[in-house]
Specification:
Helix 4 links the parallel strand 4 and strand 5. The chain has 2 domains: 130 residues, NAD(P)-binding Rossmann-like Domain (Rossmann fold), CATH 3.40.50; 207 residues, Dihydrodipicolinate Reductase, domain 2 (2-Layer Sandwich), CATH 3.30.360. 34% of the residues lie in helices and 25% in strands. The two termini are 38 Å apart. It has 374 residues and is α/β, with parallel strands linked by helices. The strands form 3 sheets. It has a 9-stranded mixed sheet. It binds nicotinamide-adenine-dinucleotide. The site of nicotinamide-adenine-dinucleotide has 21 residues, from helix 1.
């Protein structure tokens, strides 16, 4: 396949991110098809037409079904709010399209299962979910170090994901706070990313016990004096047991003042320890319990061309990649899947395993006890 037509639904934060990835992926990864940006969809025609011009899409529409009916489009990006993912993804798969859908998959586990079933009965189309942090070369190097035994037996995981985009109690109410449009709160927005990293480094999570809370229970409705009830979680913490027998801790918050992209993972092993903080995403910190004790300490490894896909984007060590560049790598992996090559995409089937974990958090918190994932 030398060319592929793409359609993009949504022009918000992630819509622009996907658009930039479509613009860059061929230049970065020469071995992928040329991208034809066929159609862009959002709810307002004037706005969508303007964005289509800016982002290089040939057409603008306000009807996503119209976009799916376009035979020039083989791959569809879904960057609309969570409550639309199931309907759009299943319809796209039914229309024979490859699908790149943002996380979380859907509002409920049943919706995520329906999407996975639609992908399983599709005619070989590729699916990918928006887990771009997995593509960080520093994270992939951490995974390699663990697999090679550099830190010995990896027996303990510590992870946190904190942001402050909801920290102001008077921040206006939005779709993200409504169960019918967003599903779970911090769990669907942030914890899913942390789970994706934890499972990448440590394998599947088998069971957990969680505490899930709303901190700011009401928020002002935009343009009025009323306040609306917040319907999903601000904070979600858990103790974990991995299938390997390793243990772990996860904390997540969308009301953590000062944290902007505080996605951190730390793995303790019998011979050393490593940690990574996405606010400094080009640095991997490694401690090896070897050599003279007086010389021991963490070494800070800066991402460089010999780490995973870094060299595709930048030939100079330590110059650093950013959030949007991870999305380019994520898209390249999807295009490898589309063209029948080995791909590291998080497929719908794999994403369902992440959804099972966040719903296990909610179940455990409701019951006040340990639950098995699944
Ligand atoms: N992977 C990540 O790191 C990451 C980061 C942020 C958001 N997300 C996910 O991306 C998705 C979108 O989040 P966002 O921050 O871009 O939201 P956003 O509010 O910035 O953008 C959503 C867009 O979808 C449009 N839209 C709504 N209904 C539509 C419809 N019927 N047809 C076409 N367009 C429609 C809206 O008008 C808006 O432009 C969510 O699922 C979110 O969880 C992922």
């Amino acid at each position: 396949m030398e060319r592929i037509g793409v359609g993009l639904i949504g022009t918000g934060f992630m819509g622009k991110c996907h658009a930039m990835a479509y613009g860059a992926v061929k230049a970065v990864f020469g071995d992928v098809p040329v991208i034809d940006r066929v159609a862009l969809c959002d709810v307002d025609q004037g706005h969508t037409r303007k964005r289509a011009e800016e982002w290089g899409f040939a057409r603008a529409t306000t009807d996503w079904r119209d976009l799916l009916a376009n035979s020039e489009i083989a791959l569809v990006s879904i960057t609309s709010p969570n409550g639309l993912h199931r309907e759009m993804a299943v319809a796209a798969l039914d229309a024979g399209k490859h699908v790149w859908c943002e996380k979380p998959m859907a509002l409920t586990l049943a919706d995520a299962e329906a999407m996975t079933q639609a992908a399983a009965k599709a005619n070989g189309q590729a699916t990918a979910l928006g887990y771009g942090y997995l593509r960080n070369p520093a994270l992939q190097y951490a995974k390699r170090l663990i697999e090679e035994g550099a830190i010995g037996e990896a027996f303990d995981f510590r992870g946190s994901v904190d942001e402050d985009y909801m920290a102001d109690p008077d921040l206006a109410w939005s779709w993200r706070l409504k169960a019918r449009e967003a599903g779970l709160g911090t769990l669907g927005d942030l914890t899913v990313h942390l789970i994706s990293l934890a499972q990448e480094l440590m394998g599947p999570i088998a069971s957990l016990t969680a505490m899930v809370d709303v901190v700011h229970e009401e928020r002002p409705v935009p343009g009025g004096h009323e306040r609306a009830k917040v319907e999903n979680d601000d904070i979600a913490h858990a103790l974990l047991r991995f299938a390997s027998g390793a243990r772990g801790v996860m904390t997540s918050s969308r009301v953590a003042h000062g944290r902007k992209n505080g996605l951190k993972v730390e793995v303790h092993g019998s011979k050393g320890m490593l940690w990574l903080d996405n606010e400094r995403m080009n640095e991997l910190n490694l401690y090896l319990a070897e050599g003279p004790p007086e010389r021991r300490g963490f070494r800070r490894i800066l991402s460089a061309p010999h780490h995973a896909d870094y060299g595709r984007l930048c030939p100079a060590p330590g110059h650093g990649l950013g959030f949007n560049e991870l999305k380019v790598i994520e898209l390249a992996e999807l295009l490898y899947g589309v063209t029948g090559r080995p791909s590291a995409s998080v497929t719908f089937a794999q994403g369902l395993e992440i959804e099972k974990v966040i719903h296990a958090f909610a179940r455990s918190a409701a019951k006040g006890q340990w639950v098995r994932v699944g």
